[in-house]
Amino acid sequence: MFSSPTPAPGSRALASNALRGAGLMSDRDTTMRDISDKPTGRKPATKHRPHRARAIYDVPMYDKGSSSSSRMLSSRISVDSGPSDLLSIRGASRSSTGTRPRRNAVSGGVPVGVPTANHGPSTVGRLSTKNRTVDHWYEFVKKRYDPQTKCLNLDSMADDELLRRYNLQAPGSGGGTAREAGVIFKLASRLKPPVETLSLASNNLNGHHLTYLDKYLPRIVNLSLQNNNMRMWKDLDPISARREKLLHLRELVLMGNPIREQEYLNGTSERYKREVTRRFLTLELLDQEPIAKISFDVASDGAAAGSSSVKPPDATTFPFQMGPSFIDGVDPSLVSTFLSRFFPAFDAQRPSLSDVYTPASTFSFSANTSIPARARIQGIQYSNEMPNQRKLEWKAWIENGSRNLHRLSGEKTISALHIGQQDIVQALVKLPLTKHDILGAPENFCVDAFLAGVGLLVIVHGQFIEAPSQGVRSFDRTFMLAPAPEGSRAKMNGWDVVILSDQWTIRGYSKPEAWAPGPMLVQATLDSNPPPTQRQLQNLPAEQQALLNTVPEPQRPLVLNVCGQTGLNIKYSLDCLNGNGWDLGRAVANFNQVKATLPPDAFLR
Amino acid sequence: MAANIDAVATQFVEFYYKTFDSDRTQLTSLYRDGSMLTFEGAQIAGATSITDKLVNLPFQKVLHKVTTKDAQPSSSSVASLLVSVTGLLVVDDSPNPLQFSQIFHLMPEGGSYYVFNDIFRLNYA
């Protein structure tokens, strides 16, 4: 009996037009807001990317100690990242690099699989088994290392002829465990010059195999784990900067791992990128793409300093798209006709509404008296622009039967559920007078409506002015509607529908931008991050201190200065300085412009 | 009647958010093939797709704090009910909770209820 709502062809367009006609929606609502003109927290608009990448690589002062080889990787990938790079990485393990100039990093090639002539079983016969095994591993590691590019290519180890000949278990697909991997990493730590780039592609590895990676190779800059078996976030723990691992890592490749591919399949690639950057504070390239960072590079010289007229944004975004009003499976004009008659009648003539309720209808309301966090930050309840907000009181609502089951129980909840038009109208007239400007600014309301088995479910979010204070409140209201029967009181009075159920939540006002389509707004943490004390700076959390130590010594005081003035942690202070050409004044001014958009973890605690 | 509805609603809301916050994959049992989730204006039909959607929301750790809840019968012929909830959503231990409004349309089945419609909006601050 409960058929699923079937959308009529073009019902979205119809719904939009009807809503617009009824003043419930504006043209603006049909498209997502353009996020690119706002600083957007952790998810800056794409257009910042090229600029951002350039900002990182072009600032000569911030030498993070990486050699030219790692820079070459970065610049190469940011210039010509494309499908061919994937091929070249796979090809690396098949000695297919003859025609390519040698690249310096994970996507570069090192010929493998050809044992060198001066090693053979006969030369190691006298050694103990254990030492012999270690020697064999070392032989393997040396064979895979290209000292010129500082690149250790450990792709597809199970296929390696040398390991097969010595009957060694390659970690992952060869059956080897974290122990074998540890031996390899330990031997790799003896290589000269030190390994900068490590590729572990195509080995069926999980996080366990990486247990000893940081212990022996803590300074690697580029790491490829392409085509492995990293499934869970905890697989990344052994190498995560959050756990003070691999603090020099600039590039990470996780393509071809379930942890990445699953998210891409689910369409949650942004979440994937966010989760990875959260764990790898120093990362600049992920899966061959520059990481989008907080856009500290928005400052232009003229605007940066003393632009106090620029109002800081009071919200940051959460990577979540807010949907516009939604009407489905029902003639949208039915909904807008109902709403545009109901609310004016509710405001001006509540007794007349007894026509639209039935003897079996129910009505109740509850008051959500908490002050919305963002409204509090905006200071709405004390603002001069809305002087009536401070005159609002909850008393009239609470005393007239707010039916919040979370607070009430027993008899009171029963008396607060009103059944039948007579009881309902009696309850309605006791409540404060309201004015719903349903025909006014369309962005002030959001409507969801669709067929729901027994009837038509209509959910309205919006705002109204309350008398006598003339303050503004927000509300959510849920109606279950049914067609008005022929000859019924409702029908005779011109209503197409009757209300079976009417539930109303009244709550503190928050601006309607809260449900505007587009990226979701969440509360900013304005002024909740006082600058750190000298003491805090001297006792940086270990991972922040470690990060600071990666900066050349002469630059550290500047970084600490920014931390001290802004409260930003080391990572964000570095980003901020990088984005502002290491100019302290510009960096701090820039910070003041964007501070409200920064996530809480941008700050020292 | 009201008391019974209130008890069902209270029990349901408590169970739903507890399950949501501890293991979202277990929510499947609360939906049926004919169930519909309307999530920020997007409609998702069927228990499996709904659970998929909920499991893949962009956060790892979540905690619902209910501020208000209310319940009413939604029909005089069927013992279905409408439960409306407002509250706070604490995501990944963020100090800034998101605020939500959610309406459950519950249908009786055997001695228990399932979610026929679930309308969720993370839409006010």
From TrEMBL, chain A:
Residues 66-81 have a biased composition (Low complexity). One of its GO terms (cellular component) is nucleus. Its main location: nucleus. Residues 334-506 form the NTF2 domain. Residues 553-605 form the TAP-C domain. One of its GO terms (biological process) is poly(A)+ mRNA export from nucleus. Residues 44-54 have a biased composition (Basic residues). It is found in: Nucleus. Residues 26-40 have a biased composition (Basic and acidic residues). PROSITE patterns: NTF2_DOMAIN, TAP_C. Gene3D superfamilies: 3.10.450.50, DNA helicase RuvA subunit, C-terminal domain (1.10.8.10), Ribonuclease Inhibitor (3.80.10.10). Residues 19-127 are annotated as: Disordered. Keywords: Leucine-rich repeat, mRNA transport, Nucleus, Repeat, Transport. It comes from the Eukaryota. Belongs to the NXF family. This is NTF2-like protein.
TrEMBL record, chain B:
The keyword Nucleus applies. Its main location: cytoplasm. Keywords: Cytoplasm, Nucleus, Protein transport, Transport. CDD domains: NTF2 (cd00780). GO terms for cellular component: cytoplasm; nuclear envelope. It holds the Pfam family NTF2. One of its GO terms (biological process) is protein import into nucleus. Transmembrane segments: none annotated. Gene3D superfamilies: 3.10.450.50. It is found in: Cytoplasm; Nucleus. Residues 8-122 form the NTF2 domain. Has a role in nuclear-cytoplasmic transport of proteins and mRNAs. This is Nuclear transport factor 2.
